[in-house]
Amino acid sequence: MLIPKTHPRAASLHIREKLVQGFRDGLVVEEGLLAHGRGEMFDYLIGEKTTKTSHKAIKAAAIALVMAKLPVISVNGNLAALCTKEIVELSKVTGAKIEINLFYASEKRKKIIAQYLKKNGAKEILGIDTKFSKSITKLDSARRIVDKCGIFSADVVLVPLEDGDRTIALKKFGKKVITFDLNPMSRTAQTADITIVDNVIRGMKILIDTCKKLSKEDLEKKPKFDNKKNLKKSILIIRKNLRKMANA
Ligand code: ATP
Question: pLDDT per residue over 18-31, tens digit each?
Answer without folding.
Answer: 999 999 999 999 99
